[in-house]
Amino acid sequence: MSTAKVSAAPRRRRKSKLGWNLLGLLVFVTAGFPVYWMLNTAFKPAKDAIDPDPHFFPSTFTLENFKRALDIADFWGPVTRSLLVSSVVVVIGIAVGLLAALAISRFAFRGRKIVIVGILAVQMVPLVAMIIPVFLMLNDLGQYDKLTGLIITYLTFILPFTVWTLRGFIVNIPKELEEAAQVDGCTPTGAFLRVVFPLLAPGMVATSVYGFIQAWNEYLYALMLMSQQNQTATVWLSNFITKNGTEYAPMMAGSTMMAVPIVILFLLVQRKMAAGLTAGAVKG
Amino acid sequence: MSAADTTTAKVPPVRQSPSSGSQAGTPAPRGKSKSGAGIPWLLLAPCLLVLLLVLGYPLIRLVTLSFQKFGQPQLWGFQEAESAGLSNFTNILGDPEFWTVVLRTVLFAAGAVVVTMVLGMAIALLLQRVSSWVKVLINIVLVASWGMPIIVATAIFKWLFDADYGVLNWLLSRIPGVDMIGHNWFASGPQGLAVIMLLVVWGAVPFVVITLSAGLTQVPKELEEAARLDGAGAWKVFRYVTLPIMKPILVMLTTLSVIWDMGVFPQVYVMRNGHPEAEFQLLTTYSFDKAFVVNDYGTGSAIALVTVLLLLGVVAVYMRQMLKIGDVE
Fold first, then answer.
1. pLDDT in tens, B231-251
2. Cβ proximity of B224 and B314 under 8 Å
3. Using one digit for the tens of pLDDT, what is the confidence trace for B135-159?
4. Model pTM?
5. d(CA A253, CA A243)
6. Cβ-defined contact of A248 to B162 (cutoff 8 Å)
7. B187 close contact with A: CB closer than 8 A
8. Which among A53, A220, A258 has the least Cβ separation from residue B152?
9. 3-state secondary structure at position A226
């Protein structure tokens, strides 16, 4: 950028921006199309969905598909069960995870590295590999088809995640704040409760919501560990798909009901989460 | 819950007794205090206990199962599980179908990871160059596809690619000379898996883009500027300035992606209506089928164990990177 180019630069930049923007819009349309098509199919009459000439803009707006989706199989039972499981898992995960996160981020102790490696390693075990022993274990414990069994199982992936994410948030809070509070006469616990905890609260909320979403979206364990009568929300939706002769329009309505609340929740916390997930990963 | 409560309740008294006097001058309890050693373990106890119960035990069970003959009679408790020695392993390792599945899984995961990372990097770089309103639009779409339950995404893609009424066949048929009406994407394994790969990538790209975007803000502008003044083109600046700085994040994201994409299950399972055909089998569905369809839990466990061992190398790389990050504190 020498001074000679200054006058020409803005015009050229505007031109090149236009190209980038067009490319950006292409990304927007391509990546957004599946979501748009779900909503489009959900709100148009079922007969339009199977029209050989697809209607890209719903001309008639109907809630018929939603009614049909609710009629095909009980919806509120599975949703209640999913809500219950996800909430309990998150409460336990945050309570237990916070203590562990404090230990690995605020204390130096022998074995700290091993604990960190362990918690990370646990996250690396593919859930699918664990389904066989977990299924047999719950069978032995008489916890098959019980919500408690599902809750216990979900802790395997929620807990490591909460520990690691909360650790990221705690690390971002300067130690000096706590130290200053202690110099001013707080006990270490008092300093934590009065100084760190309020700063940590938004991160904890974000972690809770994110953990909730993870538990809500889980499919394999929910499918294998619960019977048809006690299925959860994700399994409810997959029943639509695996039934012979899928009714796509009600299925998209069901998908909309499943996804929209979750995506909205996600929108609310994702910025905060991105900060927590990358804490310490990028240090300039 | 109760475990957590009791520990919090216990922490203050332990903490206060020695520290109140001796530590007035050195507030940072960084390990050197006499009593400090017990506290972190006390804080960790509930977490470690839960993990041992819900993860440690099943893992051990997985290993023992893979050396046992465990089928329907054992499941119902009619018979004790009997030791099978190494026969589960010799059976699967001697089975050509198993190796086909391994190869297919590796190719599938590698393809998904490469496409995810390249697309993710490209979109992250693009986001730096577009106007802010385009940025907002792209971000909304990214978050929406990221937050989508996998089952919902799978349902949508099944609908998009439907042979008779799928909008994609119709769209492709708009191209002159292309007739895709009634084309069944799942008639052949490779084509069907390509669709599933697309679905996996669509769900995975947002996380990569958002993480890389955060990383790109850390690349010092002066460095890029200096490289440009030295006459480096856009590609060279990216290759020799941006990429080296981004390396730790890229390593972390790549290893995570490998682990996730090797563990793809619901996408295949639901796309194929709960019964994936032979040419759609990946290690995850293969192990699942052996256990729950054929009721051969021993063999299923052995396959799962081999999958975990395959991933260990990748995990080791990830660990090293994360520990480096953990030490930054």
1. 989 899 999 999 999 988 898
2. no
3. 999 999 999 998 899 999 999 999 9
4. 0.85
5. 16
6. yes
7. no
8. A258
9. coil
